[in-house]
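Read as amino acids, tokens; as here:

___
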Amino acid sequence: MAVATGAGLLAGALLDAALGDPRRWHPVAGYGWAAAALERRMYAPTSGAGARYAAVAVGVPTAVALVAGAATRRRPVARATLVAAATWAVLGSTSLRREATAMAKALESGDLAAARERLPHLCGRDPSALDAPELARATVESVAENTSDAAVGALFWGAVAGLPGLVGYRAINTLDAMVGHRSARYARFGTAAARLDDAANLVPARITAALTVAAAPLVGGGRSRALWTWVRDGRRHPSPNSGQCEAAMAGALGVRLGGRNNYAGRVEERPLLGRHGRAPEVGDIRRAVRLSGLVSAGATALAVIATAARAQRRAR
């Protein structure tokens, strides 16, 4: 079955590369709708309520995936097809790169209003007062962080745990985006979702950073600078995982990330990553997009190799 899982991961990644996200009836959007409905029934401003909510919202779809996996235990074609469909549904790397490329085009044409309008597709930062360099910085940071969330994390957990890994990871990641941020409503209720996401991304974020370092020369960067920036600055970010990806990206591109971010009136001062680099420019968005594609391809190869190696070990 490991061979079928590996084939499904590869097929799903190829579907994402060719088509991007499903245009209609996206399963992740449907899950988000169901999770929001569940939140309305279970919400209370306590960490206990948030833990119960996360347990149900993650546990139910993961259990369904476990049942589906068990039902295809002796049906490799069905297993590969199911894993391919799930992989395509949970990956978002191609759509991420398309959004970032659209931002680059808007900035290159000097259309600041269009660029500001596009930023909410990439991150939750308030774009109303951002100029072109700040929009470029926000985009590069989003590409760095979301390459792990949208590609590497899902592929890692798919290789580790097959269909339940894919579904469970995307459920955790989606919940974190919905309730895991710092706000008055979710300060305590979202704690469990945020901690689950931190745990789920602990390894994928570092794989993302390592692959970013490895691919740096292919976008005009240097491995040594990318590695040094990752090691030096990766732990300075308030997130235990995002900083790993952003620091490696900053070093690979030779830019400076971090600084003041405004989230709908809530201002955060982020530490500088790659503090000796220059401010990001529009061209750096396109370099980040290429680097994200290379990292996603590398993660796909690693996932397939890992499942193939597991199948070989079981065959002995």
Summary: The chain has a mean pLDDT of 93. Residues 127 and 316 are 56 Å apart (CA to CA). The radius of gyration is 19 Å. The longest strand covers residues 266-273.
